[in-house]
């Protein structure tokens, strides 16, 4: 019988609450909630029924040129 190998966890991902993620992304908590319910443009995870955003996903959004909805609307109007 093969022995199960244990893997060591060396680094856990940083999780942000909706309030923290909204501040970083310059959005409201309600707009993040709307995104989760509709477009799911912003990735999220649930842990024990609570919503969190991964730091890597937030950084990726910002690096890909993510702009808050109001900034995107202003850019289109210009």
What does this entry look like structurally?
With 78 residues, the protein is an alpha+beta fold. The protein contains 4 helices and 3 strands; from the N terminus they run βααββαα. Strands 1-3-2 form a 3-stranded antiparallel sheet. The radius of gyration is 17 Å and the shape is elongated.
* Order of helical and strand elements: EHHEEHH
Helix content: 40-55%
The end-to-end distance, rounded to whole angstroms, is 68 Å
How many distinct beta strands? 3
Main sheet: strand order: 1-3-2
User: What class do helices, strands and sheet pairing give?
Assistant: alpha+beta
Strand percentage lies at 5-15%
Query: Cα-atom Rg, whole angstroms?
Result: 17 Å
Shape: elongated
Give the arrangement of secondary structure elements.
Layout: E1 15-16, H1 18-25, H2 29-37, E2 45-47, E3 50-54, H3 55-63, H4 69-77
Antiparallel strand pairs: 1-3, 2-3
Helix pairs in contact: 1-2
Which features does this protein show?
single chain; 78 residues; alpha+beta; three-stranded antiparallel sheet; 3 strands
Task: Write a short abstract of this structure.
The protein is an alpha+beta fold. The protein has helices at 18-25, 29-37, 55-63, 69-77; strands at residues 15-16, 45-47, 50-54.
């Amino acid at each position: 019988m093969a022995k199960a190998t244990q893997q060591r966890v060396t680094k856990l991902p940083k999780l942000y609450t909706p309030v923290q993620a909204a501040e970083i992304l310059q959005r409201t908590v309600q707009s993040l909630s709307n995104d989760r319910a509709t477009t799911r443009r912003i990735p999220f995870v649930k842990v024990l029924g609570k919503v969190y955003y991964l730091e890597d996903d937030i950084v990726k959004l910002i690096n890909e040129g993510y702009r808050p909805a109001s900034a995107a609307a202003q850019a289109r109007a210009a």
